[in-house]
Specification:
Blueprint: E1 4-8, H1 15-23, E2 40-49, H2 52-55, E3 65-67, E4 70-79, H3 94-101, E5 106-112, H4 132-152, H5 156-164, H6 170-177, H7 185-194, H8 207-221, E6 224-229, H9 236-246, E7 251-253, H10 256-267, E8 271-272, E9 281-282, H11 290-307, H12 312-323, E10 326-332, E11 350-353, H13 358-366, H14 368-372, E12 374-379, E13 385-386, E14 396-402
Parallel strand pairs: 1-4, 1-5, 5-6, 6-7, 10-14
Antiparallel strand pairs: 2-4, 3-4, 8-9, 10-11, 12-13, 12-14
């Protein structure tokens, strides 16, 4: 299953700029609310140290790229329309936003940390700043209530009573109701347990019980990482520190606009910049006018140095490796040369959930036919044989042996 990361936030917070910066897309951006109506898709990359250095080989990546010893692995981003209070009731573009959001496995919440926008994405009047923490609270609330609305559709009261006589059906029936929101039965079970409703008769569930269950299900099935965008602006650092005091969740500062500027100059071969770096090298100074030179120097001094990068790559990496709990696995055909059948060295790397077993990896990521004929794997480092129930480790390099 392909992992999809949703980019969410209120209008004008910088969601589309983040997508453009991460994916080098050309999605329209504007200070006007609801510039994004239809969901925008893009391919971004997570960055991890490549095993080519450890194994002392020159690799030939096919499904990813290797730059200066770092492997960049593709992931899917989805930028949806801005969310406003009462979106779950259809306000703004709420219904469209939430329907698009159903496809995502996890969310990155882009917060305008300047406090310069109200909850609808409009500039605040009279210079009065808003509290970015309110954005955290209202967005979580809207998605939680959206889950609750989905569960309550089609006569919830009668549904509860029908389950009262057989509580064993609650997981199956809740799963059916939520099947369009990309959840699984394990997540339903875990949410029942953490909300204390695992052994409570569904007929006696109160509205508060349902709100609690919906909240836990959202936390488990669509976890949120917070990105404090526009970090170089006035009041941003003060607001970031306040956010960190109020929230127990990770909050990563970033400047999506700065990342987009640097990546575009790198694409034009004016500078050499590797995403996630805290510096860049000017390689074609003649193509920069005085204003452009001042701009990139300002980015270096005000963003790259104090924050150790623009934050965009750090956010993507944290989302995939820490929150989605993914690891990297390199399958090869030739154990000694670390190559495939075409002599490409370390050609592919796959992101898989930590805890994935070898046989499942073969069927899900390589080919289902190979899983049927799977015999064993071989660890490229130790040359040890690995059985079908071997739990994959980060940066494993494995040869798959089949009966055909």
């Amino acid at each position: 299953m392909t992992l999809i990361v949703g980019i969410v936030g209120k209008p004008s917070s910088g969601k589309s700029t983040f997508l453009n910066a991460a994916c080098l897309t050309n999605v329209k951006v504007s200070e006007l609310p609801f510039t994004t109506i239809d969901a925008n898709k893009g391919v971004a990359y997570v960055k991890e140290t490549c095993v080519c250095g450890e194994m002392e080989v020159k690799d030939d990546p096919k499904n990813s790229t290797c730059v200066n010893g770092f492997r960049f692995i593709p992931i899917n981003l989805l930028d949806v329309a801005g969310l406003v209070p009462d979106a779950h009731m259809g306000k703004g573009l709420g219904n469209k936003f939430l329907n698009d959001l159903a496809k995502a496995d996890m969310l990155i919440h882009i917060i305008d940390v300047t406090g310069g926008l109200d909850k609808t994405g409009k500039a605040v009047k009279d210079g009065k700043k808003s509290d970015p923490y309110e954005d955290v609270l209202f967005l979580e609330k809207e998605i939680n209530l959206w889950f609750k609305d989905i569960i309550e559709r089609e006569d919830w009261s009668r549904f509860k009573k029908a389950l009262a006589s057989d509580k064993r059906k609650i997981v199956e029936e809740l799963f059916k109701r939520l099947s369009g929101v990309k959840i699984n039965k394990k997540q339903v079970i875990s949410s029942l347990r953490t909300s204390g409703l695992e052994n409570k008769n569904p007929a006696s569930w109160s509205d508060d019980d349902l709100v609690l269950f919906s909240s836990k299900l959202r936390e488990i099935s669509k976890p949120i990482l917070y990105a404090a965008n526009k970090i170089d602006k006035e009041k941003s650092l003060e607001n970031l520190n306040s956010l960190k005091e109020k929230s127990s969740s990770p909050i990563i500062p970033c400047s999506a606009l700065a990342e987009h500027v640097l990546r575009n100059y790198d694409k034009k071969e004016i500078i050499k910049y590797v995403p996630g770096s805290n510096d860049f090298q000017i390689i074609n100074k003649d193509k920069l006018n005085q204003k452009e030179m001042e701009l990139i120097q300002k980015i270096k001094e005000n963003i790259l140095k104090p924050f150790n990068g623009t934050g965009v790559q750090q956010i993507l990496n944290h989302a995939i490796f820490r929150i989605a709990d993914q690891i990297c696995v390199y399958p090869v055909t030739e154990i000694n040369t670390l190559s495939d059948n075409n002599d490409n060295i370390l050609p592919d790397v796959f992101l898989v959930k930590k805890g994935t077993l070898l046989r499942n990896f073969v069927g899900e990521k390589i080919h289902s036919d190979l899983a049927e004929h799977f015999m064993f794997g071989i660890d490229a480092r130790t040359k040890k044989r690995l059985g079908e129930n071997y739990e994959l480790k980060h940066n494993d390099i494995i040869k798959i042996v089949t009966s055909r």
